[in-house]
Fold:
Amino acid sequence: MNNLEIIHDSIVGGKMEPAIEATRAAVAEGINPQDIISNSMIKAMEEIGARFQEGKAYVPELLMAARAMKGALEIIKPLLAGDKPATIGKIAIGTVSGDLHDIGKNLVASMFEGCGFEVINLGVNVSADKFVETVEKEKVDIICLSALLTTTMNYMRTVIDALKAAGLRDKVKVMVGGAPVNEKFAMEIGADAYTDNANSAVIVAKQLVAAN
Structure:
């Protein structure tokens, strides 16, 4: 088994140390860092994502795979300095103001990174102003709003209204998610998409970027 295969299988299996070792070996072998990302890491995250979708893998496995991928990616990041890696889109993600939950959001952010997006993770308790400022400064393609409480989910509407007021609504796609959120609510507040898990978030984000 070559190093690219070991990286792929280690990430799918959620084994961080072997993924890191094989990444180091692949780099030492002279394999192009972008090839390692495209041919091993992204494919591994897509595979674990597909398994999750089919009910053959669960959230802990997704988290372990994302952790392994991020560990391996740290080895490669310094080699990409100055050579901007090709990304399929730029996403800002955050849990809305008043809400401090971040496990689901971080999993989605890791899946986005693993599947080739550039991700700005704004953290938790993020204000509408911060989302607006990020869209202006970073020229992101998509913002993802997360909420885990029924009391905070309505703030998503506040963020969308703030984007409209700033004249930015037509420049960015808005995705929403979180336990109390559903498709109906997403449409009511004027979001572009709702997803209920990390893998479908990646699929929808790719569609939104491709449609731009």
Q: What stands out?
A: Residues 33-53 form the longest helix (21 residues). The chain has a mean pLDDT of 92. The radius of gyration is 17 Å. The longest strand covers residues 118-126.
